[in-house]
Amino acid sequence: MLSKYVRQPHAPGCDCSVCWSRRELGKPAASQSTRCTECHPTRVFTVVTTMALVAGVWRSIHSTYRVEPGFTCAKHMPALRPPKYWHVVYDSGKPTPFVPVREPFELEG
Predict the structure, then answer these.
(1) Cα dist from 35 to 24, 30, 60, 78, 82, whole Å
(2) What pTM was estimated for this model as a whole?
């Protein structure tokens, strides 16, 4: 019976969790990729490099670097917690287990 449902295509307007996740992951993250005038990445510049002849080849044996720290504005700062994907649509209280009745019965005592 389960094999009847496995690998079946979803309807075009399907709102199940799988289709919803595909739609959300397919959307471009405009706020994370869009650059603004305030944001800039961290950059590293080589200031001084000491070269030496090693085995007949000139190689860098020592370098001094200058680091320009980056900055991310509040708009593009990632959230402290991940986005909320799942939510409760209707909370009807405590779950009630379903017990199928195969034969009629009478309560005792």
Answers:
(1) 22, 9, 35, 14, 22
(2) 0.34
